[in-house]
Design goal:
By secondary structure, the chain is mainly beta. It has helices spanning 35-45, 317-320; strands at 11-14, 51-54, 57-60, 72-73, 79-81, 88-92, 116-117, 122-125, 128-131, 141-144, 153-157, 160-163, 166-170, 176-180, 183-186, 189-193, 200-205, 208-212, 229-235, 238-243, 246-250, 270-275, 289-293, 296-300, 309-313, 323-325.
């Protein structure tokens, strides 16, 4: 069974980081009939230093009657590698902070967080990750640390990540996430660095952000009629650094869900490249720092309030003092009037 744009799915577990060829898995291939279950098994037995290679194809978390929507956990120290963007797809329809997986002993895994959960020391590479929440009016999250994981380090390299609401997600203290040469697509918050306590670190290099309000009709806090919007980055705690990145963001007029929800609206009055206040969040932490080096940002209000569309929308004075940018970024639109020292 093949999927348009993807071939037949296969996966192989290698013990250690030295497969026979860097992008051609060797060994017994997993058949399309049981491919996701085999991936789950490989993840369950993998040890730090192991590599799991996924072949061409779509690996759907809910394949063949599986009711568990995730999270799919990449174990500590494991390297999960696909055949490249456009060839290997990991797909889920999990609701964020819900739908925990059933473990082999019959217990339920903690369900909070995104569909694909990163652990300390893991790397994911050459994979398309996509989450489409089964309930379109609820928030769906694609990939990142669960809020229960802290002081962890992980790397995302040469991947694409897509979700309607929360695409890349880090909401717990002390974590460091590095993203390189990737594509992030979403309808609300594309990258959330939101630990408002001691802070976390997200380092992003040579990555494209594509935000489109029409990818979501959720009615969560990031879609509220006062402060909702499309946000390339929401940074509310710790360090967010973007180097040689590009953002293309598009808003929308109010969208009313086509199901009865007490007339709650799905709205995006704002479109922002980087902000410290996304949706209905409280004030950011005093640890918040934002560093920008050669950011290109194109915003199309497209029905959102043009007066609330900014490349940099930093609303708290103590965070404004902790924003720095290169000479190439001097022309980025900014929503504050006070001078911010570089």
């Amino acid at each position: 069974m093949s999927v348009p744009g993807y071939g037949i799915a296969a996966a192989v577990l290698f013990h250690g980081e030295n497969p026979p060829h860097p992008f051609v898995p060797m060994g017994a291939l997993i058949t399309p009939l049981n491919k996701m279950q085999q991936v789950r098994t490989a993840l369950a037995v993998a040890k730090p230093g192991d590599m799991i290679c996924l072949g061409d194809g779509k690996f759907a978390v809910t394949d063949h009657g599986m009711l568990d929507r995730g999270p799919i956990v990449i174990p500590p120290g494991v390297h999960l590698r696909g055949m490249g963007r456009g060839r290997t797809l990991l797909w889920s329809n999990k609701q964020i902070d819900a739908d925990g997986a059933t473990l082999p002993d019959g217990s339920r895994e903690i369900p909070i967080g995104p569909a694909f959960s990163l652990s300390d020391g893991c790397t994911v590479e050459g994979i398309d990750f996509e989450n489409v929440c089964y309930n379109p009016y609820e928030d769906g999250g694609c990939i990142g640390f669960t809020p229960t994981i802290s002081n962890a380090t992980a790397t995302i390299r040469d991947c694409s990540m897509k979700a309607g609401d929360w695409t890349v997600y880090d909401w717990s203290p002390g974590n460091t996430l590095t993203i390189e040469d990737s594509v992030i697509t979403g309808g609300r918050v594309l990258l959330a660095n939101e630990d408002s306590g001691i802070g976390s670190t997200v380092l992003v290099y040579r990555t494209q952000f594509f935000g489109d309000a029409k990818l979501s009709v959720s009615v969560g806090e990031v879609s509220n009629k006062d402060n909702g919007g499309v946000f390339g980055v929401v940074s509310r705690g710790g360090l967010t650094r973007l180097v040689d990145c590009e953002m293309t963001l598009s808003g929308s007029g109010w969208q009313y869900p086509d199901a009865p929800t007490n007339n709650v609206v799905s709205a995006t009055p704002r479109v922002c490249g980087i902000t410290d206040m996304g949706g209905g969040n409280g004030p950011p932490s005093g640890t918040t720092r934002i560093e920008i080096y050669n950011l290109r940002c194109a915003i199309d209000a497209n029905g959102s309030d043009p007066a609330r569309c900014w490349a940099l929308d930093v609303q708290t004075d103590y965070v404004q003092k902790n924003v720095s940018w290169s000479a190439n970024d001097e022309t980025l639109s900014r929503s504050w009037t006070a001078s911010v020292a570089n």
